[in-house]
């Protein structure tokens, strides 16, 4: 399964970009992964190439790390070839983009800066794969 993190806008901090690159490197051991930056006006066209679209937004479903690992496992078991997780711009998603989504996930009820959400999501995705592989990264 190929996974993409599609983000609106560029990362503003070199430190955040460095952390993102570290998790992208770690993820390469588990899945084909790409990080795609786009703009608000090109988001719909960017998402057209993905089979499944999951919006990351505050009104989405909240999950524990283990539940998120189960979500990833379920996507793989259903035969999803390419899944996009999407972080929108500062004003969220348009109704047109919301209509494209297959699922919505909330990383927290709190509000985070968009750059940090990228790192938080990548870490949780990495954690999900380590849970699925029964590796010692996740402690419960």
Characterise the protein shown here.
It is a single chain. The chain has about 140 residues and is α/β, with parallel strands linked by helices. It has a single domain (about 1-130), classed as Alpha/beta knot (3-Layer(aba) Sandwich), CATH 3.40.1280.10. The protein is about 40% helix and about 25% strand. The protein has 5 helices and 5 strands. A 5-stranded parallel beta sheet has the order 2-1-4-3-5. Helix 1 packs parallel to helix 5 (about 115-130) and helix 3 crosses helix 5 (about 115-130). It is globular and about 40 Å long.
Compose a concise summary of this entry.
This protein is 41% helix and 25% strand.
Features:
single chain, 140 residues, alpha/beta, Alpha/beta knot, 5-stranded parallel sheet, 41% helix, globular
Helix and strand arrangement:
Elements: E1 2-8, H1 14-27, E2 32-38, H2 43-47, E3 52-62, H3 65-77, E4 82-87, H4 95-100, E5 103-106, H5 114-132
Parallel strand pairs: 1-2, 1-4, 3-4, 3-5
Helix pairs in contact: 1-5, 3-5
